[in-house]
Structure of Elongation factor-like 1:
Amino acid sequence: MQHHVSKRRFAMGLSSLDKIIALQRNPANIRNLCILAHVDHGKTTLADCLVATNGIISSRLAGKLRYLDSREDEQIRGITMKSSAISLHYRNGDQEYLLNLIDSPGHVDFSSEVSTAVRLCDGAIVVVDAVEGVCPQTQAVLRQAWLENIRPVLVINKIDRLIVELKLTSQEAYAHLQKILEQVNAVTGTLFTSKVLKERAEEDEEEEEKKKDSKTLSGDQVYDWSARLEEADDSQLYFSPDQGNVVFASATDGWGFSIQQFAQIYSQKMGIKAEVLLKTLWGDFYLNAKAKKIMKGAQAKGKKQLFVQLVLDNIWSLYDAVVTRRDKEKVEKVVTSLGVKLLARDLRHSDPKVLLSAICSQWLPVSQAVLLMVCEKLPSPLEIAAARVEKLMSVGARRFDSLPEQTQELKRAFLQCSSGANDPLIVFVSKMFAVDTKALPQNRQRPLTHEEMAQRRDLARQRHADKHTALWNKSAVQVLSIYYSISLSGQMESLTLKDSKPEEEEEHQTFIAFARVFSGVAKKGQRVFVLGPKYDPAQALSMLPEGVSASGCVSEVPHLSCCTMESLYLLMGRELEELEEVPVGNVLGIGGLEVSVLKSATLSTSPACPPFIPLNFEATPIVRVAIEPKHPSEMPKLVRGMRLLNQADPCAEVLIQETGEHVLVTAGEVHLQRCLDDLRDRFAKIEISASKPIIPFRETVVRPPKVDMVNEDLGKQHKIAIIHQVKEGRSSATLHVDSGGLVTLTTPNRLATVSIRAMPLPQVTSLLERSAELIRTLEQINMSLREGKSLDISHRTLEAIIGLKTQLEILLQGRKWRNAVDRVWAFGPRRIGPNILLNSVEGYQRPSVWQCLGRVVKAGEAGAQVIRDLDNSIVSGFQLATLAGPMCEEPLMGVCFSVEKWDIQSPASKVEGSSETLEEGATAGPIQARRRPEAASADCYGPVSGQLIAAMKEACRHAFQAQPQRLMVAMYTCEIMATADVLGRVYGVLGKREGRVLHEEMKEGTDMFIIKAVLPVAESFGFADEFRKKTSGLASPQLVFSHWEVISSDPYWVPTTEEEYLHFGEKADSANQSLKYMNAVRRRKGLYVEEKIVEHAEKQRTLGKNK
Ligand SMILES: Nc1nc2c(ncn2[C@@H]2O[C@H](COP(=O)(O)OP(=O)(O)OP(=O)(O)O)[C@@H](O)[C@H]2O)c(=O)[nH]1
Ligand SMILES: [Mg+2]
């Protein structure tokens, strides 16, 4: 197969490469597009058909080869694992097009690869399986296309399955196809309305702001929210066959069509205008044969729709003749009527599918239909929308129009897609991928051109002659042997040309950047700026001299570096072709960036260019394993390998834990497997062993339970007993825990005291989690405010912050939470996490995290809003406490720590001596501390700030332990499609793994059930495999991280009532799932595990005997 491929490739010849280079200069005829779909819906198969049109693979193998699945494991598993690009040439009439086609994976584990693909494209082919319809990943990819503002077209694939597998009639198939279209359009519709409403809201605000500025506020205005929806033009938006953005296809059988093609065919045959047919071929129209007219209302009159009669019936009868009945005569008839020419061997072939695809690929070649649609319906790079440009270039929370002028000017270059000599180069690198250094074109063995061959021959002859004369005097035997060796090496040389590289280097991997030119021309050897994600053009422009170029030294500017684009490549699937330069609007590969670019980056010749917004990743990496080399001495190789892997994968994370373990974090099981394979075979090239997946947990507290483990009501007595336990065990000289769970802790030097209470956060946890990015922005803004800088915050960001605050206010209701939102001191861990630090200190009017919302401080209050000294220590202590909880050192989630008292005394008052001053200091403390901070820090226990951090952390931990503690587990959702007969087994597998079925429904038009379920990540390993085995090879379910869930059982629970003893026995650890999880984590981390392995062994045995 491989051989076949390479032979064809060379047959493609250089003229074709020249053609592509020429086409690269005409952006109007370039289409950058990716193929997106749910897993297994036929992307790669469809790509095969398109690739075959360029003769890169033979059309007979198209649909079977899956050429773009170049990795061995992709071929074996039958799924795509990376996005890869290929450039194709297509001629439509007198127009010639260059298509940069990117195939993407559909498996959810690799959805980050989809993100890298859509960023580089202007359009997308969305493929939907005609049987399975819209699946979770279909929705996900449609959303991604929207987020990147790229235009989609639709291919409904595998229509043959409707005929052969589901055995639908043509009429039923029509209804089924209609439903699929509706489903897809419903997804688009939701995306569209939400976007329009959002834009509308933004515009309104801007208007309002303008009004405010000009002080012409004119009374109340009532907005009609639905008005804009109706105004907005959405006709281009939806998929509809008469719009020409839908192709019906069967990629394996090689056919596909849009209704344009049939409109053309029948307008000639029937003498009806093509435009009329185009409007009526899809829809409720029928043909009145007598009147020779097309009429409306086919369904009501019980007539066949035009689409069924003129299109589907033809295909159905072809399948009937060729596949079902194998009727030779009928086949011949059809063949002649279609004007198709067949080879004898196809006619004789035992597999009817061969004959079928031979006929179909001539009659309705899928590549023609798809390529035509792509060229007509997808935008060229010239049509890039202003909105997309602004979105790509928006720096953090800034407004576009607050960016430096030079930066705003870049937008013009961007929109015009200009490639003049003076236009700045802007390139976006969306991922780095590794190739064998050997496989690079400059190192590849290639056939020589005729001239080179002749030159070599002359050279060899010359050298040979020289040597010959020089050796004339030597003995005959010697001469002969030398002659022999020379001529031999001459021969070898004349056959192949290869840059010699040292042996070791050949083993290496070279990183190529997967990129697109958004403005200007990329030239080989050019120096460019590499703009890190945090690079700020405004800051850089003020630091750099005017007109600086990337060849100068810019080391002092933060997040800016320079590099050379050492080589440029045309991406041709499995191969690369070297290029000298690549003009705007093209997808390309760039060599020589591996030192300067980790995963993605923006490159430019202008320092005014902002870094593009980061890629939108849908998947959260969640599966972690610790990795070790089999032989400890190979550690350096492993470290190097993991570094390379980190660079080569957009979503994998590599980190070293405090314990020294090397940890790999991946999106799921399949992704993990691929990463391990890559590490073993390509990057580290050593034997490795991976630990069992490390499952993440979260620790939280809950309200005290109302019933015990056997559902008996818990009396007040019992609650007090629990709290008493806590108190007894933990109180000491510096620590005091009261019965309400308020923990008071004093620093070792007895100068500072904090009182803290932990409370479960109601409902807001998931909101905080979702808003992590926003909170990070908020934190950054606060930071700059504290430093006294002012920021021009964009409207959208402000709006989002206000939204978050309002939502929190709505969710945090009740007496306990009065004014809580205004008192939020910090979020944690890492300042963005889903836990809250609350300021309940009486008399401490600290500005809250919302200070950027600029509620003007009234003159009188201004003095009160001062941040106390050592405020930061409290926050740091909180951050540490939330990063690792007391249960098993996992991060906390959904916990609120309320600081109720915070006193600091100056050492002076301590000299006076007794414990009463501590109480007195409670009111005087803050002021004193503010006055004399330097005195407070001079102490034999070290700086107060450090002590306070430790005390704060400890206090939080104790406060946490004073509440009922619980573990939280990560949950996956999965959607499973199953036929009725395996349904029982599906439930069995789910039940065994603690899964929960959310809902189950019948898929319309099929006998399949769709089951939506959740199951803990901790129980998910091997799930897909078990599933396949138990249900004999159903499509494997896709596990997507969904949310965190509290396990209801208490890990510290011991039976206290008689009923509980009876029910669970004395040890009571049989049913305690969360204790099992907690101990497993503690054991892994080398923490103390309280466990009695065998207890009273003798006794138990006698007991058993007696029974
Ligand atoms: N019956 C039928 N099968 C098809 C058709 N197109 C693709 N297939 C089959 O569907 C399976 C998946 O095809 P792929 O092209 O690998 O699907 P994919 O979308 O690239 O899958 P991922 O890249 O893993 O997401 C293969 O076994 C194909 O042979 C079709 O038109 N009809
Ligand atoms: Mg694929």
